[in-house]
Amino acid sequence: MSGKDSRTSVTRRQVMAATGATSAALLSGCLGGNGDEQSSGSGDQSGETATDADATETPIPQTSLSLAGWAADDTESELLKQRISDFESTHDNIDVSYSAVQAKYKQKLKTQLGAGNAPDVFYVDANYFGSFAANDVLLSLDELEADQELDTDDFFEPLIDAFRHDGSLYGVPKDFSTLGLFYNTELFDQAGVEAPETWSELKQALAAVAEKTDVKAPMMEYGNARMWKALLYQNGGQMLSDDESEAVFASDEGVEALEYMLELRDEGLLATPDELGAGWHGAGLGTEEIAAAIIGPWTFPFLAENHPEVDEKIDVAHLPIPEGGQKATSAYTVSYSVAYNTDSPAASRELIKGLTSSEGMQKWAEQGLALSARKSHQSLQFYEDHPRYKTLLEAGEWSVPVAYGPNSEALLNRLHPELEGAMLGQQSAEAALTKAQEKINTEVF
Amino acid sequence: MARSNYEYPGYEASGATYWTKTTLLYAVVSLGALWMTLPFWWTLTTALSQNPTASSVTFIPAELTLGNFVTLWERPDILLVRWFLNTVLFATAVTLFNLAFDSLAGYSLAKVDFWGRDTLFLGFISTMMIPGMVTLIPVYLLLVELNWINTYQGLIAPLAANPFGIFLLRQHFKSLPSALGDAAKIDGCNEFQTFYKVYLPLAKPALATLGIFTFMGAWNNFEWPLIIANSNEMYTLPVALFAVRNQYFAEWGLMMAAALLIVAPVIIAFLAAQNYFIQGMSLSGMKG
Amino acid sequence: MSFEESRTDTDAESALFEVATSVKQQLGINRDQDNLMGWMFVLPNVVMFLVFLLGPVLFAFFISFQDWNILKNEGTWVGLTNYIEILQPWPWENNFAALKDPTVNLWWYSLKNTAVYAIGTVPLQIFGGLAIALLLDKRVRGKKIYRAAYFMPVMLSGAASAVMWRWFLAADGVINGLLEPIGLAHNWAGDPATALGGVMLMAIWGGIGSNMIFFLAGLQNIPEELYEAARIDGASDWEKFRHVTWPNLGNTSFFVIVMAIISSFQVFGIALAFSAGGPYYSTTTSVLLIYQRAFEEGQMGVGAAMAFLLFILIFAFSYYQYRYRQSEEVDY
């Protein structure tokens, strides 16, 4: 059983907010991120654009910066404010005013950008990063690529690549979350099963749990089949074509992955929150109405705070993969980015550097809201002490950000309801994916 | 009701039929009333239950606790007082603007003989035909341009005038004798003084009705603040309830406690001033 | 002409007019001054209407031909593209598949949802309201309490009633608690086949009360003598209703029906708060689709075009109703 990684000062809402995942998403189907993960491999182009190399040497005049992000409540704001005062104490000439938006952050930011009065530095979810970058509302951060101190090579490639557009960097990941298989060790023991490693093992394990324990359903998943995106990549499929010019998820691999989920569902092994009367996976795990769920690190603080006894029984494994498939999971990530029209580009870059440097990122990640985006942090004592976090962190290596180019939001808005239709038994896996793909390729691309 | 016994059910019928009819009447009306009010009871009992289940709250709650209200109060992301004050400010401002603007226009259209008056009135009335959702997008974009998104002025200004109010008050002013104004003018009142000192006091009942009606509409308005308020601290109660619903989905006790807090002031106000509300409602029906 | 129109007043008053007219002339209050004051008084409203109503309608028409970029707050001209993409494929081209399958064309599907909602709620709201009004118009003990009970749902914000009904109709909700013993429990709000029914049930619940009030007011205005005359003629209850009550409620019922249909075409808040358009688009009404396209996806041009299409529909309907009513009135 894993060690205790409870951080009772953090509530579910903070964590969900930190990952951009609110429980609202289960209905609106907007949990997804977006980004453009296919741009991997473009990581070394920074030299071409870093003409401004002396920018970092020119002393920055007395500057005040505005920074906006979301925070579900004061506790989370306080955590970030501490990081900001750390930064200010080493940068006498930069004064940062931070504002936490507690609700419709994205809408607010979009209208501010449209009106030309956005903050200097702000969070950008990978989900809408693509549309921001494509519309030239973000400032290139290529100078930071060359910065030895920041060392962008240390970031998990899929994460930092999610914030590249046309070969330039427009955001630095502030943290990330991956999906892992959360399971109740006591219930699994009762059923006589171990953490599954393959799809068929998962199915058997869930069947055993269904038979031998009195859970309401062995596993829970949203109506919009959130985990399907990870299963698609595990099975060798992909969301977009290599040149990102069209959606290609309705491949055999994609259909097979969804059919697998529908099988679980038809056999009563997978139920939606709506059917179970629980708001989300964490609540289901906490009340032991379910034994397993594919979910992310934002669940930990919720369990620790609300269901401490159950929390001790929950362990995390990497996602099971299909026989002969490859490791993959979904990643949700958020960047610090800079407005195209900022008055203080140099100071903004400096702030981002301070918050995402090895030291800054470590301090932030150790709050337990989300995972450090830096590979080298896998050896941190914090992760040794918290093996469940470590499992989720390791998966960063093979994670695929939920981010699909400039039209990511529109794509997911059309995909999720079709997946929901399939999960509700309204249509077959193939029909759902084919229809969604066709719709996306005609309406979105 | 000035109606006499003639309408009494089964007035002319024999005793047995009369009783059957009366019983049936009361049964139907009572059943309907039960359907109307039971949801409020369910909301109350659910809000007072820690772990509401269908059977525990349907009629008599199994346990009573204020836990949900305490939780709501303690959650740092739930700004009950702020939301309440936002809603009061929003609804009051919208009401005052409407009363001021609409009474000016209503008076002028009824009592001042100015060039283009009838065309203008027709113009105002025909804007009632424009469905709200047509202007939602352009007004939003206009407010983006003005930097008024997520501000009180953005919430209030677009609702500050309403053709229905103009119509209602014009009809009322028209029903008041013009001689009053002429007399006032003989006494040396100018047009504004005539309006303000002579006619406006006489329009109090209509103003009260329009005021209650407008206030209620703004208090309950969900769509407009949903689009304009982008941050927690700018929410009005209906939008806040929607946010709570999304955040705490399936935590029914908590959601119903939040719903109750939003509903209670309106219901209390209604029960205290029932006649005004119903009169306001009837008047809005008269325009047809 | 204000003086002409005011002639409905008493004789004494009309005598005053003449005095006043001459006084006015003596005081030099002339048309110029009336023009100035009149326009001054309506000015605030005129400005508000131009800025927040008429201007925006024209602007909406303009952006419905644009691909509007919310991030830049500017658009590019795309001609009829938005309209074409919304409307095509035409429903008759594919045997009306769009009415069954939301993926074929979401606009037509949302319109179907809207129509189902309108047809399912409007008559029940109206007849329910009329029936209760007729019953309460009689001498019923505790009438005030009944009236308050029926009116209470009207006082609620759509958001509040949607949140409440979402719980009543949840899989583990109160209504299933009642239906369980008779074996009719069902995940009402979570099933695409029944979710819209849930929204409609809620709308009927919230709509009867206001119609009841309108009809009660209308009933008050029917002269008692008409009933008296009918009674002397030996009319039955039904005949009294058919020949006295109903014709005399003409204005009220015209207004109530038109308003109910127009507002049912614009339903959006309750569907959003109830189930966010889901499950599987089953509660996606036309205005909810407009909201999602415009404010969730930022496609302002598409949203504006959809809004105009709906506007045309509502306008055509209201006009038809108006003409129909006019032709009916000739018969009286």
TrEMBL record, chain A:
Keywords: Signal, Transport
Biased composition (Low complexity): 36-58
Record-given protein name: ABC transporter substrate-binding protein
Subcellular location field: Cell envelope
Location of region: Disordered: 27-61
Organism superkingdom: Archaea
TrEMBL record, chain B:
Gene Ontology BP annotations: transmembrane transport
The ABC transmembrane type-1 domain, residue ranges: 84-273
Predominant cellular place of this UniProt entry's protein: membrane
Membrane association type: Multi-pass membrane protein
Domain of life: Archaea
Keyword vocabulary terms for this entry: Cell membrane, Membrane, Transmembrane, Transmembrane helix, Transport
Gene3D superfamilies named among the record's database cross-references: MetI-like (1.10.3720.10)
Matches recorded under CDD domains: TM_PBP2
Membrane spanning residue stretches: 24-42, 54-73, 80-101, 121-143, 252-278
Pfam families, per database record: BPD_transp_1 (PF00528)
Subcellular location: Cell membrane
Similarity annotation: Belongs to the binding-protein-dependent transport system permease family.
Name under which the protein is recorded: Carbohydrate ABC transporter permease
Automatic annotation (TrEMBL), chain C:
Domain of life of the native organism: Archaea
Source taxonomy: Archaea, Methanobacteriati, Methanobacteriota, Stenosarchaea group, Halobacteria
Occurrences of domain ABC transmembrane type-1 (ranges): 111-321
Pfam families referenced in this protein's UniProt entry, alphabetically: BPD_transp_1
Annotated source species: Haloferax marisrubri
GO cellular component terms listed in the entry, alphabetical order: plasma membrane
Chain segments annotated as transmembrane: 39-63, 115-136, 148-168, 195-217, 254-281, 301-320
Keywords attached to this entry: Cell membrane, Membrane, Transmembrane, Transmembrane helix, Transport
Family as reported in the entry's similarity comment: Belongs to the binding-protein-dependent transport system permease family.
Biological-process GO terms, alphabetical: transmembrane transport
Location in or out of the cell: Cell membrane
Protein's membrane topology: Multi-pass membrane protein
InterPro entries with a match to the protein in the record: ABC_transporter_permease, MetI-like, MetI-like_sf
Protein name listed in UniProt: Sugar ABC transporter permease
